[in-house]
Specification:
3 domains, 455 residues, 16 helices, Rossmann fold, 20 strands
Length: 455
């Protein structure tokens, strides 16, 4: 199955385009224009002459040019007929936003079976129905039906995100945009009447824009095929999975949400591990893990160095490192001597965790970091910064970024604080340095990176 037309179309039809700004069809059409989609856009609405200054067509069949992709956002009783016209027109990629299919039971189940029969043995493929669809900042594709003043869009990045749930995914996208975590491709595929998680994994496996894949799953269509696909993908790039429907109550909720069968969580968890994927226990971990896996090199071993200007944070890191089975690196004599050169003369103890003390400035951090990343006894580095101190300026970001560019070991950062701190952390994220608001999260992310090497 080729999904290229979903992510790299030269033309799109919005079926159900509307003049009413409150309608999904208006929001989606405006999204394409606001995103700067470079291809041709065809609004489809039999009752309108033009929308947003673009000529309207009664049907895709009235468009003389070829159309690569379509978004269907009409009522369920009209959606399948619109899909028939897409098949007749030869449109290869259709995003079916419309709900009212299998997830509703009864007539919705029959409606979904009809949908499948319409595209059977054709070159037309469907994402959905009952989905949010696709957001692609590289291809400038946006079928998210919430306006951007309500839902901030993420910038371009190297983490792909695929989700069965649209509502969950929208909240995560909004959060990622606020945290300035870049997204390569996003797909909410809903009921997966056609395109499913296996098809999307196969596409992302070879996608050069994607370095790590985050997945929210409620259930899989074909367990054996999913496992085989997962193995082939994790041989090339990391996959982090958040599974919903772990409990009996959760499984019932999944069934009424997208009509999926969640299956046994114990079996699913074993399959994830066998397939080489990383499991996230919550939404926080989903992107904590993806960020470090996407942007940092895999360490040689599990010997961690910690550099901080706050002794308490160093102690917290040491506790976390020991608790989860990692170890603190022992600095070489060359490293110790190098760091001593910038420390106050009365400060004679150089050990790991390294406390640069509260008056540490950018220069002290720079010398310490540069010595540690060259130390063969160190496999990974966690830099903890109390950014509120008077002696430490925003130049610390440039020092860490420069070290990261030269370092052969992974570097992550932890800093706790308010708006000023978060602003500097987001600057680090832009340069591929994962930054976490607590030592525990930084250490857990590093553990994931180490375990990924030994999976």
């Amino acid at each position: 199955m080729s999904l290229n037309k979903f992510f790299a179309p030269k033309s799109v039809a919005v079926i159900g385009a509307s003049e009413n700004p409150k309608k999904f069809g208006h929001v989606i059409l405006k999204n394409y224009t606001d995103m700067g989609f470079s291809g041709r856009i065809y609004p489809i609405n039999p009752k309108a002459e033009s929308i947003l200054g673009m000529k309207c067509y009664k049907s895709v069949l009235d468009v003389e040019d070829d159309i690569d992709s379509a978004v269907i956002v009409v009522p369920p009783e009209a959606a399948n007929e619109a899909l028939r016209e897409c098949v007749k027109k030869g449109i290869k990629a259709v995003v079916m936003i419309t709900a009212g299919y299998r997830e509703t039971g009864g007539a919705g189940v029959s409606r979904e079976e009809e949908l499948k029969s319409i595209i059977k043995d054709t070159d037309t493929h469907v994402v959905g129905p009952n989905c949010i669809g696709i957001y692609d900042s590289f291809g400038r594709i946006d079928t998210l039906f919430l306006p951007d003043y309500k839902l901030k869009r993420p910038s371009a990045g190297n983490i792909a995100f695929i989700s069965q749930s649209g509502a969950f995914a929208l909240s995560i996208l909004d959060w990622a945009a606020t945290e300035e975590i870049g997204i390569s491709r996003f797909v909410s595929y809903g009921n997966r009447a056609d395109v499913d998680e296996v098809d999307l994994l196969n596409y992302l496996k070879n996608d050069k824009k994607t370095k790590a894949i985050a997945m929210y799953l409620e259930g899989v269509k074909n367990g054996r095929l999913f496992l085989e696909t997962l193995k082939s993908v994790t041989d090339k790039k990391p996959v982090v999975i958040l599974k919903a429907g772990k409990s009996v109550s959760g499984t019932r909720a999944v069934q009424s949400h997208t009509g999926s069968l969640a299956g046994s969580y114990a079996v699913f968890r074993g399959a994830i591990r066998q397939g080489g994927a990383v499991e996230a226990e919550n939404t926080e971990q989903l992107f904590d893990y993806c960020r470090v896996l996407a942007y940092q090199p895999v360490p040689r071993g599990k010997r961690i160095a910690v550099i901080t200007n706050g002794g308490g944070f160093g102690v917290m890191c040491a506790d976390s490192i020991e608790r989860i089975g990692l170890s603190l690196a022992e600095f070489s004599k060359e490293t110790v001597d190098g760091i001593k050169s910038v420390m106050p003369k009365e400060y004679s103890s150089i050990h790991n965790p390294l406390d640069l003390i509260g008056d540490a400035d950018v220069r002290r951090y720079e010398v310490a970091i540069n010595n540690v990343i060259k130390d063969r006894n160190v496999d990974a580095l966690i830099v903890v910064t109390l950014l509120q101190t008077a002696s430490l300026g925003p130049e610390i970001v440039d020092v860490i970024v420069s070290a990261n560019e030269r370092s052969k070991i992974p570097i992550v950062v932890s800093a706790s604080g308010g708006e000023y701190t978060q602003l500097l952390l987001r600057s680090l994220e832009k340069d591929g340095i994962p930054a976490y608001p607590s030592p525990d999260r930084a250490v857990n992310a590093m553990k994931t990176l180490i375990e990924y090497k030994n999976r």
